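subagent[fold] <- orchestrator: predict structure for attached chain, return C-alpha cells only, no commentary.
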Amino acid sequence: MPQVTFSYPSVIGISGAARAGKDTLCRALIRVLAKQGKNAVRKSIAGDTVKTDLQELIERKFKLDSFTEITEEKEFMRPLLVEYGKMQRSKTKGRYFIEQFKPEQDAINILPDIRYVEYPKDEVYWLKNEVNGFLIFLEREGVSDVNDTERVNNKIIREVADYKLKWTDLDENREEDRAKLDEYAQNILSFIYISTVSKATISLEDMLQPSSTF
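subagent[fold] -> orchestrator:
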C-alpha cells in the first residue's frame, strides 16, 4: 500500500471567550511546532486589517499609532475599532475581513481570533470549508462570555470545533506552567496528526478497493 503523507493544515483557528487564553495557546503551538522544524506564525482574521484601515485616521485625529502596544491607548481606541469592524461585517455579511486576509505562504497560520458564525459563510465556514483549516475551541475555568454576541456565537462554535480544550489559569512566564502549556499544544498537534492520517488511510483504502460488478 502506498505511504500516507502528512502535513498540518495551513490554517489553525482558535475560538473562545475573551481572556480564555487564545493568544497564550497560539504561542504554545508556535513553540512546539518550531521544535518540530515547522514554521508557524500568528495571524489575525480581522484585527490587523481594522488597524491598517484606520491607521491614517487615528494618527491624524488622535496622534496615536493604531498598532500601539500601550494598554491605555489600546483601550482608548477599542470602541472605534470595534464599531468599524461591525459595520464592515454587516455590509458584507461577514466576508470583508475574510476577503482581506492574506495567509503567510510556506507557514502554518494560527488565528486566535475566530469569533463569528452569524452569517452563512462567516469566519467558521471559511476556516472549515474554504481553507480546510482546523478549529480549536478553548475554555478557561472562571472565564465566561463577556456579552450576548460572544455567548451566542461561542455556543455554536463549540459544537462544530474540531478540538475542545478546557484549562486553568496558567502563567507562561513560569517554567512549570509553560511546560504544561506546551504539553497541551503537543496533545492538539498529535490529535491533528492522528485524525488526518486516519482519514487519509481510510480514503486510500476506499480507492484501492476493487470495484463491484453486478
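orchestrator: received. Logging for downstream: The mean pLDDT is 89. Helices lie at 22-35, 47-62, 71-92, 96-100, 123-130, 148-160, 175-208.
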